[in-house]
Amino acid sequence: MTRTQRIDRQDTGRETMLGSTISQVASLVSWFLFAVFISSVIEWIGMLAGWWDKTHARHMLTEEIGYLSHIDQNALLKLHPAQLADKAITWVNEAYSFIGLPKVLNLLSQYMGWLAIGISSAIDITYTLVIRLAVVLLALPAFILWGLLGLVDGLVARDIRKACGGVESSFVYHRVKGWIKPAIGLSSGLYLTLPFSINPALFFIVPQLLFFTFVYYTASTFKKFI
């Protein structure tokens, strides 16, 4: 392989990595905007159906801030959830101010109060989801730790099964393996769109235990001979 070919391959690899990174960021942004839309629709339906009053979104935001203030600094990322959420909310405020949303709300409140209430609720929902997104990002290291623990325990169980001539079951392996990513994705999506506040430390206990279980059984049922 000539030097020119190696350079071309390196450039192609960099372009592929850059394109993949941009695609993942765009997917994350689209996913978050979709969560904002779904949560806003749920909030509006709840108000119209009489499940809660017009201040429900504001109360939920206040409770989320209270939960966030009691979470300590993340030991791995060296970030405090409250600081991360505060920066994100500042960016959202700047974006709303840039498009002139506060002026629009003041105008609508004079002539179309119901529409102003709906938009205000959607804004509070956006703030709530920003806070929850910060919690999700800081909860990912915990998933990694649980995954590493499940991987180690599962490989030990695999070695024991291999040494003792245990039965091989590819059915369990393929079925359980498919639930590893959803254990993180579905739980995070559910947490973002919940129409009520819940302590994130309690909410993520079950998803993290499920993640550990799926990784454990995936590693323990991996084929005995490679």
Automatic annotation (TrEMBL):
Keywords: Membrane, Transmembrane, Transmembrane helix. It comes from Gilvimarinus gilvus. The chain crosses the membrane at residues 28-52, 111-130, 136-157, 200-219. The keyword Signal does not apply. The keyword Membrane applies. Pfam families: DtrJ-like. Signal peptide: none annotated. InterPro entries: DtrJ-like. It comes from the Bacteria. The lineage of its organism: Bacteria, Pseudomonadati, Pseudomonadota, Gammaproteobacteria, Cellvibrionales. This is DUF4400 domain-containing protein.
